[in-house]
């Protein structure tokens, strides 16, 4: 099979998966959720300081970081957990594999379609806030905000890769959904608590750069660091910034780490799916 034909097969599968998400209004629903929450945070995030509306681009992004860390990984995991195991339970997986398509093409095609739906819903959900920030702070605000939205998309794609891996490994949809929720709970809620507990329990002996680089084992923390180090005001809001070495502030290295979180689970999933 030629590379052009391989891309054509994946493109057809991705387009079908994307159209299905548009047809069942999944993209619209997620975009509305993002829009509503992001506008609420933008306008009322500074209410405790007696001000309504965005005070600065830095504080607005710092407020939106928490929304993204909790919401986007959960949405990505719920979107992709049944990508493969769902087809298997419905009996359509064997039918798809009977077509002139490889397992790798099937896996990547479904991932690309889901990724396109997740990306569109994320960008659309944050678009209205971009207009508000442009009106308040001018075009310069869109540079930082654009980087924040891009890092949000990468975070979603990383958790979508993890969801597809779970979908390949799980025996049924029930187990896949349970594993997806457990993974969200572990990476978003528990991981940082365990690291901080380790730091306290060892009296600070386990710390420094070794401790900081453990954060790279969690894509949610990579996203947080990307946005903490990109803005001076955000660094002051997070005590996490005080324990991170300057090398951790390199946007290129952190972006590469996030891309590794996207590619790594997909490589494992493709290997396991073909086994």
Q: Can you characterise this structure?
A:
By secondary structure, this protein is mostly helical. The chain has one domain. Helix content is 79%, strand content 0%.
Topology:
Blueprint: H1 3-23, H2 26-44, H3 57-80, H4 85-90, H5 93-97, H6 103-137, H7 140-169, H8 173-201, H9 208-214, H10 219-229, H11 232-237, H12 251-274
Summarize the structure.
Keywords: Membrane, Transmembrane, Transmembrane helix. This is ABC-2 family transporter protein. Helices cover 79% and strands 0% of the residues.
Name a few traits of the molecule.
single chain, 275 residues, mainly alpha, 0% strand, ABC-2 family transporter protein, transmembrane, transmembrane helix, ABC-type transporter activity, membrane
Q: How many helical stretches?
A: 12
Helix content: over 70%
Report the major sheet.
Answer: none
The oligomerization state is single chain
Strand content: under 5%
Taking Cα atoms only, what radius of gyration do you get, to the nearest Å?
Answer: 20 Å
Shape: globular
Low-confidence stretches: none
Q: Output the helix-strand order.
A: HHHHHHHHHHHH
- Indicate the mean pLDDT: 85
Summed up, the domain count is 1
Tally the beta strands: 0
Distance between the termini: 20 Å
What structural class should be given to the helix and strand makeup?
mainly alpha
């Amino acid at each position: 099979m030629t590379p052009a034909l391989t891309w054509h097969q994946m493109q057809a599968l991705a387009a079908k998966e994307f159209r299905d998400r548009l047809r069942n209004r999944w993209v619209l629903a997620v975009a509305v959720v993002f829009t509503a929450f992001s506008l609420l945070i933008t306008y009322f995030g500074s209410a405790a300081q007696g001000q309504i509306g965005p005070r600065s681009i830095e504080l607005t992004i710092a407020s939106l970081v928490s929304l993204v860390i909790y919401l986007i990984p959960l949405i990505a995991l719920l979107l992709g957990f049944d990508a493969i195991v769902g087809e298997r339970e419905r009996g359509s997986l064997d039918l798809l594999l009977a077509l002139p398509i490889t397992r790798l093409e099937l896996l990547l095609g479904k991932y690309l379609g889901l990724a396109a739906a997740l990306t569109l819903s994320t960008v659309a959900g944050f678009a209205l806030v971009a207009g508000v920030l442009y009106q308040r702070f001018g075009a310069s605000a869109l540079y930082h905000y654009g980087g924040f939205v891009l890092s949000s998309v990468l975070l979603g794609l990383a958790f979508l890769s993890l969801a597809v891996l779970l979908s390949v490994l799980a025996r049924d949809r029930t187990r896949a959904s349970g594993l997806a929720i457990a993974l969200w709970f572990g990476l978003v809620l528990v991981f940082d608590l365990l690291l901080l507990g380790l730091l306290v329990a060892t009296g600070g002996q386990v710390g420094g750069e070794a401790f900081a680089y453990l954060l790279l084992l969690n894509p949610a923390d990579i996203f947080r660091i990307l946005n903490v180090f990109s803005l001076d005001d955000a660094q002051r809001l997070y005590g996490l910034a005080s324990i991170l070495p300057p090398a951790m502030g390199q946007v290129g290295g952190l972006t590469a780490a996030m891309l590794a979180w996207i590619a790594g689970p997909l490589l494992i999933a493709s290997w396991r799916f073909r086994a």
